Amino acid sequence: MSPSRIPPLQISAFTATSSVGVGKTALLSALEQSRSGLRANDFGPTPLPTWIGRVDGLEELRLPESLASWDCRNNRLAWLGLQADGFMEAVAAARKRYGPARIALILGTSTSSIGETEEAYTRLDDGAFPVDQRRPKVHTPHSLTMFVQEALGLEGPAETISTACSSSAKVFASAERLIRLGLVDAAVVGGVDTLCGSVLFGFNSLELVSPEPCRPFDAGRNGISLGEAAGFALVERGPGKLELLGYGEASDAHHMSTPHPEGLGAEKAMDDALARAGLNTDAIDYINMHGTASTKNDEVEGALVARRFPETTHASSTKGFTGHTLGAAGIVEAVISLLAIETGLKPGTVNTTTLDADCGPQIKLQPARGEVRYALSNSFGFGGNNCSLVFGKGAAA
Question: Would you call 324 a catalytic residue per the annotation?
Answer without folding.
Answer: yes
